[in-house]
Amino acid sequence: MLILASGSPRRRELLTQIGIAYMVNPSSYKEDSPKKKDPVKFVQAQAVGKACDVASIYPGQWILGADTIVAVDGAILGKPRNTKEASVMLHTLSDRKHVVYTGVALVRDGEIHSRVVETKVWFRHLTDSEIAQYVASGEPLDKAGAYGIQGRAAAFVDKINGSYTNVVGLPLSQVCKMLRKAKVDV
Ligand SMILES: Cc1cn([C@H]2C[C@H](O)[C@@H](COP(=O)(O)OP(=O)(O)OP(=O)(O)O)O2)c(=O)[nH]c1=O
C-alpha cells in the first residue's frame, strides 16, 4: 500500500477524496529555511527529503512526500512561525499575484520520481482589520503563505491559474500521472 509521508491533514483529505488507499507515516525530515533559494529546487528537495526519510523505514514500499511554499517577488514564504509573521505575510500577499509551488516525490528504495507543480494566485486588497481577524482565527498558522484557500481565505482570492489542489497541498492530477508512470498499485 502507498505510504503518505505527511502529517498534513489536507494531503490526507485530498488523497481520500479521489479514493486512493494509503497509510500515513509523517516524515521527521527537518525542513530547511526557505529564504533566498530557487523555489522550484527548494520544494523539490524538500519533497524528496521527506519521502526518502520515510522510505528508509519501509523497504520495497512506495512513499509519497510533498512540500508547498508560496513565492512572491523573489521571496519564499513557508509556514509562519507566529501570528506576527502571519500578518506580515498576508500584508505582502494583499492586492497582488503570487505563485504556489508544490513539490511531489514518489520514492521506493533508491528509485525517485519527483516534480514541481505551480499555480498562480491573485489576492484582492485585504484591509488591516480583515488580516487581523483572519490571523486571530488561527487558520494561517500551519499553512504556507499564512492562508488556506480551502478555508476562510477563499474570500481573498480573485482568481487562480493552474491546479487548485496544488494550492491546498497536493496536485491530484499530476500525482495520479506519477503513480501511473511508476506503476504504483493503488
Ligand atoms: C497555500 C496553502 C497551503 N496549505 C498548507 C498545505 C501544507 O499542509 C502546508 C505547507 O506546509 P508543508 O511544509 O508543505 O507541509 P506540512 O508541514 O503541513 O506537512 P508535511 O510536511 O508533514 O507533509 O500549507 C493549505 O492548506 N492551503 C493553502 O491554500
UniProtKB/TrEMBL annotation:
<dbReference type="GO" id="GO:0036218">
    <property type="term" value="F:dTTP diphosphatase activity"/>
</dbReference>
<dbReference type="GO" id="GO:0005737">
    <property type="term" value="C:cytoplasm"/>
</dbReference>
<feature type="site" description="Important for substrate specificity">
    <location>
        <position position="10"/>
    </location>
</feature>
<feature type="active site" description="Proton acceptor">
    <location>
        <position position="67"/>
    </location>
</feature>
<protein>
    <recommendedName>
        <fullName>dTTP/UTP pyrophosphatase</fullName>
        <ecNumber>3.6.1.9</ecNumber>
    </recommendedName>
</protein>
<keyword id="KW-0378">Hydrolase</keyword>
<dbReference type="GO" id="GO:0009117">
    <property type="term" value="P:nucleotide metabolic process"/>
</dbReference>
<dbReference type="InterPro" id="IPR029001">
    <property type="entry name" value="ITPase-like_fam"/>
</dbReference>
<feature type="site" description="Important for substrate specificity">
    <location>
        <position position="68"/>
    </location>
</feature>
<dbReference type="Pfam" id="PF02545">
    <property type="entry name" value="Maf"/>
</dbReference>
<keyword id="KW-0963">Cytoplasm</keyword>
<comment type="similarity">
    <text>Belongs to the Maf family. YhdE subfamily.</text>
</comment>
<dbReference type="GO" id="GO:0036221">
    <property type="term" value="F:UTP diphosphatase activity"/>
</dbReference>
<feature type="site" description="Important for substrate specificity">
    <location>
        <position position="150"/>
    </location>
</feature>
<dbReference type="InterPro" id="IPR003697">
    <property type="entry name" value="Maf-like"/>
</dbReference>
<comment type="function">
    <text>Nucleoside triphosphate pyrophosphatase that hydrolyzes dTTP and UTP. May have a dual role in cell division arrest and in preventing the incorporation of modified nucleotides into cellular nucleic acids.</text>
</comment>
<keyword id="KW-0546">Nucleotide metabolism</keyword>
